Structures are given as C-alpha cells and as structure tokens.
Task: inverse folding
C-alpha cells in the first residue's frame, strides 16, 4: 500500500492498518500484577549521580586496585550498557504486537532502570580511571594493560551479539524473549545482593542495593508474563525456549560466572587475567564473589529457573558446567543469542 495513496475520497472508513505497526493504539489492562510493578518502579526510581560520590576517595587506592575495580564495571557495562537499546527494541515490539498497557509500561521501566545501570558503570569507570572510557585510557600498571586487552575482546564479542539480537527480536515471540530475560534477572538479583554485602565503599553499596532491587522487579515482570502466557505455549515455542536457556547461559556466564571459551572468542590468558584482577579488587574491599560463590549462585539460579519451566512442561537444557543434566542443546549459533541483563 503506497503511503501517498488517498483513501478518504473513495471510502467512508479507512482500510485495515497493515501489521506489525504501533497503530491502532489501545489501553487494555488485564494483568494487575504488572500494573503494580510499574507503580513500584516509579516509587523506587533512583539517580546514580545523586549517590554519595563524595565519600569515594580514589586516591586511597593504588592504581592496580583502581584499574581492577574499573575493569569489573567495564565487564558489567558489556551487559548493562547494551541493556537500554536491548529493551528499547523490545519496547517497540510490545507496541507493534499490541501488548496490554501494563506490559508496555513495564518494558519502559526496564529500559529506564537499565539506563541508570549504564550510567553507574560510566560514572564508576570515569572516577576510578580519571578517564571516560576503558579502551582509550592509558593503563598505569601491567595488570591494567592486560585488563584493557580483555576489555577490547569483551566489546568485540558484545558487538557480534548485538547484531544477533537485532535479528532475533522480530523473529521471536515475547514469550520466548521473556525466558531469556528471566534467566538474567534471577542470577543478577542474587549477585548484586552479594556485592552489596561484601563491598565497603558506601557509594558502591548503595548502587548495588538499588540495582539488585531493580533486577528483582524485572524478575517479577517476567514471572507475571510467563504465568499469563506459558500455559498455552505451543510445543514449537517450548523447544525454542529450551534452546534460548542454553544460549542465555553461554552469554550471561561471562559476567555472572566465567565465559565459556569455546563460545566466546577470547584469548587464552583472558580468564587468568580476570581472576587475578578480581582477587586484587576483593582485597581492596570491592565485593566480587569468589569463583566458588559464583558457581553456586549460577547453579541455584538455573535450578530456580528449571523449577519455573517445569510447571509448564518445558524441557530444561543440560548445563554441564554447573552440574545440571537435561535436554542436550548443541547447535547454538550467534543469531540465537538474546543478550540481556
């Protein structure tokens, strides 16, 4: 249909609007739980710039410590700095498929929350390094130089996953997208609680408390939509969800555990360098969980997610890295990844 073709002079009412399209608009409200989550997001909104930054004395840290803590925020930025455009794309989809009003508002709130998380990453990196980005920063130490190499490889991989995500959003139903979203939120809510408990700097503790609360709210959104949609999920969609869970594990492990080297394109010394940096940051009072704690957290998150999917008869994939048996999924490709956090 030509956008310039005139209809009003030859028919009383316009033709049907071709879909997908954000028009026609409506404001149906079916899921009260989602309206409650939206209202909570307004009450609980926070501003990273207004945290107690004046309590952070970066000069009290060595340059090694500053670079190692900044690296963790850089690692988080691979996920949280991609989240605003990720959820902006998903928000557009909720309008194009004419989701109910509370779903659209909740997706808007998630995009807003993730923008705050991105801002937090940027502020932390800038204050610790006295420079606004980790790739053009001039490292002061040997570990700083090695971590900058890690950061470049992380962003390289992130760029490939972003291209895959843009291709995935039009292809998948929201029910499938939510399975990936929920996976990240379950684990993130736990890890930020641990970071809050184990970090000594007031500004970081406050940030982790707020971010963890946001992630818990995002988890509630996913659960409400799954309770609404999953009882009627087709067998075809169930199999796609199974594959997405495996894909999500491979992607999110880079920040919540350690990146699977056979999937992430990273140099051989990547993990050793990252472990060394995490130990330095922990010794400086920055509460990154130990390898064992991350492994336990990731396994518990997977088991919690399995419990959710079992209710709807959705096969859970094998996650041998954390000792979980299940449906074998071996053909994960870049275009299958839905990057979220």
Result:
């Amino acid at each position: 249909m030509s956008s310039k073709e005139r209809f009003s002079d030859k028919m009383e009412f316009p033709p049907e609007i071709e879909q997908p399209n954000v028009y026609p608009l409506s404001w149906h409200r079916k899921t009260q739980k989602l309206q409650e989550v939206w209202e909570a997001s307004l009450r609980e909104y926070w501003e990273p710039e207004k945290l107690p930054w004046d309590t952070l004395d970066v000069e009290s840290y060595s340059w090694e410590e500053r670079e190692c803590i900044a690296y963790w925020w850089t690692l988080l930025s691979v996920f949280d700095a991609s989240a605003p455009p990720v959820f902006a794309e998903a928000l557009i989809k909720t309008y194009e498929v004419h989701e109910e009003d509370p779903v659209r508002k909740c997706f808007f709130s998630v995009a807003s929350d993730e923008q705050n998380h991105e801002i937090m990453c940027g502020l932390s990196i800038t204050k610790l390094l006295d420079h606004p980005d980790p790739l053009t920063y001039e490292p002061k130490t040997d570990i700083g130089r090695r971590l900058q190499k890690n950061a470049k490889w992380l962003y390289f991989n992130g760029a490939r996953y972003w291209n895959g995500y843009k291709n995935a959003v039009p292809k998948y139903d929201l029910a499938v997208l939510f399975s990936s979203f929920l996976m990240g939120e379950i684990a993130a809510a736990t890890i930020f609680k641990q970071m809050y408990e184990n970090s000594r700097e007031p500004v970081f503790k406050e940030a982790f408390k707020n971010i963890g609360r946001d992630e818990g709210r995002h988890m509630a959104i996913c659960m409400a939509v799954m309770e609404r949609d999953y009882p009627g999920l087709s067998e075809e969609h169930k199999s796609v969800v199974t594959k997405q869970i495996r894909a999500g594990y491979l992607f999110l492990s880079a920040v919540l555990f350690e990146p699977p080297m056979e999937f992430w394109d990273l140099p051989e010394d990547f993990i050793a360098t990252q472990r060394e940096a995490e130990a330095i940051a922990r010794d400086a009072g920055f509460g990154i969980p130990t390898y064992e704690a991350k492994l336990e957290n990731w396994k518990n998150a997977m088991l919690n997610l399995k419990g959710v999917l079992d209710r709807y008869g959705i096969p859970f994939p094998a996650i041998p890295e954390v000792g979980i048996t299940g449906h074998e999924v071996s053909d994960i490709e870049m275009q299958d990844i839905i990057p979220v956090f």
In short: The mean pLDDT is 91. The chain has one domain: 34-41+58-336. DSSP finds ten helices and no strands in the chain.
